[in-house]
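Try it yourself: sequence plus pyridoxal-5'-phosphate, in.
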Amino acid sequence: MIPLFDLASQNARLHREISAAIDEALLTSRFIGGEKVSRFEREFADYLGASHVVSCANGTDALEIALEALGIAEGDEVIVPAMTWVSTGEAVARVGARPVFADILPSEWTLDPQKVKEKLSPQTRAILPVHLYGRSAAMAELRAICDEHRLWLIEDAAQAHGGTFAGARLGSLGDAAIFSFFPTKNLGGLGDGGAMVFASEDHARTARLIATHGQTERHHHTLIGRNSRLDALNAAVLSIKLPHLDEEIEQKSAIAAHYREALGDIVCGLPALDDRSRHAWHLFTLTHERRDALAAHLAHRHIESAVHYPHALPEQPAFARFGTDPADCPVASHLGRTVLSLPCYPGMGPGDQAAVIAAVREFAR
Ligand SMILES: *Cc1c(COP(=O)(O)O)cnc(C)c1O
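Structure, out:
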């Protein structure tokens, strides 16, 4: 079976260092907070070229806490792309605000700035683009809209560690950004983990306070917070993995370029790339009108594939009460019916790449 990801061999390459970190964690038994966590926050901030990184328990918490730290609450609206992982819309609803879904661009698959403009209302407080599959959203256009209407720009960069836009790292462009360190993400831990990035020190301080029970000093709580922490062991592992991130993205870029070249002449959709930015290649995706049959054909050839994601968020029952008619986001719905992710991971050998290409060509001929 050719897998979609191969975490086991990726981790095996760092086995000695990761094992040593686990041994050290057992020895010190300092599992929460401490130097490993602050060190990773510093290193990740340096990597991004960002000033303030606040770690937390997962990417969904990061979204929720970041929204709360920016003061978004009941009565507010946040514009979210109709095609994304559920967390993006869920977090907005969780802080009591209304997720307003806007359609995506037909060839980039990220938030369509024109559709965003049509969704603006006096209640709009923020725009929350997603760098879907690792490709930068239209940040220049979205920044212009935010500046004109005095809105927060919040990047969901959970799929985009290592990507860039106009020379800057994704996650360093917004008023806030969030990352997930879920194991299969570009930078993944040994379990759940997440981080928030803020342009303002005040927002970072508020977010850290929310994530640590609103505790300013021991047993003194100034606001109703919660518990959302990155484990020290996970922080140590992320510090081990971070220096390899760029090299891993290079490897995935080469595979993606190979796929694009070898599949460019057959009937399937490939995302439009942007010269100004580096795709982070969290996922290599294509579209095909007979997607389910293509997936079945690949499975028959022992090739794993997956759908990210089969439904636009306005189609989900959980979001029905927010009143976006799914028919209002036809591009996102169509992507849900046609998109397929193919195996693409660091260390994937040329033989496996050739097998994937041959199987797709055989089907799509
Ligand atoms: C993975 C992901 C998240 C949430 O991350 P978790 O760590 O799984 O909570 C949020 N947004 C997007 C786009 C994601 O892909």
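One thing you can check immediately is this: Residues 245-263 form the longest helix (19 residues).
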